[in-house]
Amino acid sequence: TIYVGDFRFKHKKGHYFWLAASFKNFLNDRSVGAIVLNAIDITVKKEAEIVLERINADLESKVKERTEQLDKVNKELEAFSYSVSHDLRTPLRAINGYAKMLEEDYTSVFDENGKRLLKTVQYNAHQMGKLIDDLLAFSRLGKNELHKTVVNMYDLVTKVVDEVCVLYPNAAVQIHSLQNALGDANLLKQVWVNYISNALKYSSKNKQPQVELSSTAGEQEIIYTVHDNGIGFDPAYANKLFKVFQRLHSQEDFEGTGVGLAMVEKIITKHGGRFWAESNLGKGATFNFSLPVDKIMK
């Protein structure tokens, strides 16, 4: 029997060193009559392993600490969502209610400037309500689990177009063949709503707004595209589009809360896909997102 092991020894000078040794008892063999020992110095290897173990232990500690911090942040976010949905809506309802009363009972005594100011109050209260709704939806995205099914993209997009185009009766929307994909249908609907709504909104000042929807299937992913003939944007700012509250156009020119594309970023990231936009000022815009090709889709 050969015995193998790693052994730690103390040098006569006081420091420690490691040997990887193997030995076999040949005392019963008269031709040998000895214990044969082979050993190599593995001190450097052992010290590296010790350092690595310390690094791993430190990393595990940091991961645990970070996880606890994230849990705390999530709980704070839930508390914030509750506050938004209840505490902020209460004064907003009061503003809307009193503004409605003023409109119904006192419009006749207001001059044109007074009527304009009242409309401004109502408009901004409406915008605040939309912002609260968008912030709540944005905060919930991080907690919601994906419920993946095979999504018929053409049917989904057709329904979205029918809903959104009510506000843009002059728009021409062309839907090409769209590849089915595996994903959360409700969340993917939000992506399409945001992309298509933006395309219609930013092309609405054209005499004939045009939006084109298509998809391209590859080996690893399916790319979905929304192209419009709107005002476009400076490509230098493309990286800002998918950040919360980042807008490239003023509220006076185009309404919006600055949350929609940030929701797209969260949803597509959760699906393991990509998202990006391409444009030049005055030449329309193309917004894309991709979804991985799942094995069951092949």
Distance between the termini: 56 Å
Total count of strands: 10
**Order of strands in the sheet with most strands:** 5-7-8-10-9
Helical residue percent? 40-55%
Radius of gyration: 32 Å
Residue stretches low in confidence (pLDDT < 50, at least 5 long) are: none
CATH architecture of the largest domain: 2-Layer Sandwich
Described by strand count, sense and barrel closure, the largest sheet is:
5 strands, mixed
User: What value does the average pLDDT take?
Assistant: 82
Structural class: alpha+beta
Strand content: 15-25%
What is the molecular shape?
A: elongated
Any overview of this molecule?
The chain is of the alpha+beta class and 298 residues long. The protein has three domains: 2-41; 70-141; 148-297, 2-Layer Sandwich (Heat Shock Protein 90), CATH 3.30.565.10. 46% of the residues lie in helices and 22% in strands. A five-stranded mixed beta sheet has the order 5-7-8-10-9. A hairpin with a 5-residue loop joins strand 1 and strand 2. Helix 2 (112-141) packs parallel to helix 5 (260-270), helix 3 crosses helix 4 (185-203) and helix 4 (185-203) runs antiparallel to helix 5 (260-270). The longest helix has 64 residues, at 43-106. The two termini are 56 Å apart. 20% of the residues are buried.
